Amino acid sequence: MEISPLLARNMDVLRRRFPALAQRLDAFPGKDHVRILRAQDGSVAYGVEQNGRVIPVTDVREPTRRMQAQLDQMSRQLTDFTRPVLFVGLYPGNELIAIFDQCEKVSTPHCPQPITVCVDSTVCLQGFLQTWDVANILESPRVRFVWHEDIPELIGALREHPEIPHVFTLVSGAGDRTLNTILPPLAALIQEREAETRRLQEENNAYYNGLDDVQLAQLISGQGGRKPRLMMPTASWSTFIQHSTRDTCAAFDALGWETRLLRMEAMMTPYYLVSQLHEFKPDVFLFIDHLRYEAEEVYPRNMMYVAWVQDEMANIHCLQAGQKLQEYAQAGKRDLVIGHTERLDSVFGYPKERLTPMIIPADPRVFYPITLSNLDRNKYGCEIAFMSNCGLSSERAVDEKIAPVVESLGISRATVQSIHDRLWTLYRAGAVFSEREAFLAEMMKFPEFEASYNTNNEAASPAGESRQDALLRIFLWGFNDTIYRHVALEWLDELGLDLHLYGHGWEQHPRFSKYARGILTHGPELNIAYQAAHLNLHLNITYGMHQRLWEIMAAGAQPLLRYPRPKPNEPPASVMREFAEVLLEGKDFSQLPESSQEVINDYVFTIAYGMAQLDAKEPKPNQEPLETRVMARLEEIVMNRPAWLIPDFEKYAFHDKATMTERLEFLLQKTNGKEF
After folding, report:
1. Which secondary structure element, helix H or strand E, spans residue 646, and what is its range?
2. What CA–CA distance (Å, rounded) separates 71 from 79?
3. Cβ pair 317, 344 in contact under 8 A
4. What's this model's pTM, rounded to 2 decimal places?
5. What tens digit of pLDDT does each residue of 562-600 get?
6. Tens digits of per-residue pLDDT, 601-642?
7. Which H/E stretch holds residue 36?
8. Gap between the Cα atoms of 491 and 655, Å rounded
9. Collapsed DSSP state (helix, strand, coil) of residue 555
10. What are all long-range contacts of 269-272, with beta carbons under 8 Å and residues at least 24 apart?
């Protein structure tokens, strides 16, 4: 029997990736008698033709309603892409396509959700391959097809690779006979892992409870008879996290530490985490953008846990997180939060003594000036390069990110669209909303937003985020931040410049797709791209010294950044750049002009006086001397001010469309706009 091009294409991929299943189909004598039926609800069913009659094998009445009810019930689990899916039976299989596509359509970086398809019927497999164009699913490295009787092999693979999650979201259209074959071995593995997890947790707690602060300090300082140990989880789906953890561990290795990366291919199960902690016994556990309370029972109670905040996250920027850290501090637990800690104490109640502001640096072993080849210049050379994963258009954000989430909070899609249009109007007129208070005042002009925001402040997310925090995060970061970036790109587009956009989502943008240049690997390729561009656009609505700026500067490349106009009472940036040289490079303060010394002395006095007043109002025992704390505070301020760190900053900073045009005319005149 001649097969269709569709079936031939699907079979070619099946033979290549899952030869055992292909052989099973080849040996199936009834494959030529499999028929595709139209179910009563308009969907598809499979049957076998015998003696001139087609005998249905799958539901011919309401297969879509039946499966949709199951998918709706598990929608939260299925949209947690770190959680693997176990798909049992193809009855008829279009639900598998829907689950697969749901993850594929997300344009921002995310975990590629693992899917295991357990096939229990050659008729259904044959019908599935005859009906749907699923070559992309069969090709996908995150999908594997297995025969239901081969479940022991799957269990064996999970035992050998504890980093692969053994907990699945089950989606099944199969009957009890199949489920009774598949589920008992999986249930046994889960029970085995749970028992082993409890045992390891007890031993982990005993180990860390036996370390007092003096002993831990000795271990961390390298005086414990072995190298200090650092453990960091890393995610396979985030190149930024991978390189951040890699570079951090490399820096600790260079300092004489022993480090271990805890690799996550998908969700990190308690078993894998506690087993790795038990084996390595880290002195410091450092986790980017995650806090202890998210899996409180899994972590040893007295293990030193350091959360490194690098992004605005619902699990961090919420009252529950602040309350939990307060509890840990009062209980004497060894928890610290470093990184972007601004507002965590004042807005979310974090204990200030457990916060350490810290920049995200650039690795000078990765980012440094090089001699570009002609090939590099031809591939990466441009007038303006912009590296960002914010390629999702604001219109798609309305439909995919904002409206579906806030409708349950009482805000209609029509209101979301009105907010969207209003923000675009204001931004195109030159407005910027970088402060939460100003942005909230604008949002409160919309009655539905105001009513929702003023509703009792119950938790609005599984992370314990309050309704108010959730609404501000969704609109400020999920919406306002995108428009802030995209309006600057509109200005560049109108100027007709040669623009390269690198990152996720740009190839789908209705206006900017023509500038999309794919995704750069974080490392040597990114270093080359920075230097091959005449200017590197940096757009950060918080205006601080973002890692991107450090990388651009370390590479010897030129930035172009949006920055607010100086405030009336702010010291001149040129003077504060002199102060930065004194503070960071050891330049002799007395050699500065007297006028600069006077400005700097006034600024330092203001900082010191404010801290002294706070000391008098809220005295704390065992504090470091005021002079030491003032110097630390000054260094923290300076290190987060691009205007005080970047030479010739005024040449590279713009405030609006007019100043952007002025800066580009000045900077591009020597290249005549096209030569590099």
Report:
1. none
2. 10
3. yes
4. 0.83
5. 998 888 888 999 999 999 988 888 888 898 999 999 999
6. 999 999 999 999 988 988 888 888 999 989 888 888 888 889
7. strand 34-38
8. 12
9. coil
10. 269/162, 269/165, 269/166, 269/167, 269/193, 270/197, 270/295, 270/297, 270/298, 271/162, 271/166, 271/193, 271/194, 271/196, 271/197, 271/200, 272/162, 272/163, 272/165
How many whole angstroms from its chain centre is CA 339?
16
The string of DSSP letters for 185-203 reads HHHHHHHHHHHHHHHHHHH
Rounded-to-integer distance, Cα 550 and Cα 560, Å: 13
Peptide bond before 92: cis, by omega within 30 degrees of 0?
Answer: yes
Instruction: Tell me the domain boundaries of the chain.
Output: 5-192, 211-357, 374-565+655-671, 573-650
| DSSP code per residue over 322-349 | HHHHHHHHHTT--EEEEES-TTTTTTT-
Mapped onto helix, strand or coil, the DSSP state of residue 465 is coil
Task: Compute and round to an integer the Cα radius of gyration of the chain.
Answer: 29
Tokens 């931040």 sit on residue: 481
| CATH code, 5-192 | 3.40.50
Give one word for 211, left, alpha or beta, with left for phi > 0 and alpha for psi -120 to 50.
beta
Residue 639: both structure tokens together: 């290190």
Checking DSSP bridges between strand 44-50 and strand 53-56, what pairing results, if any? Answer: antiparallel
Instruction: Please give the angle made by the CA atoms of 308, 310 and 314, to the nearest 5 degrees.
Output: 95
Helix axes 270-280, 176-209, angle to 10 degrees: 30
Structure-token match 């000078």, residue found: 364
Could you tell me which CATH number the domain at 211-357 has?
3.40.50.2300
N-term to C-term CA, the chain: 62
Beta pairing, strands 34-38 & 44-50 = antiparallel
With contact defined as beta carbons under 8 Å apart, do 484 and 424 qualify?
A: no
**Bridge-based pairing state of the strands 284-288 and 229-235:** parallel
- What gap in Å lies between CA 214 and CA 194, rounded to an integer? 34
171-185 residue pLDDT tens: 998 989 999 999 999
CB neighbours of residue 648 within 10 Å: 10
Task: Find the helix or strand (DSSP H, E) in which 503 lies.
Answer: none
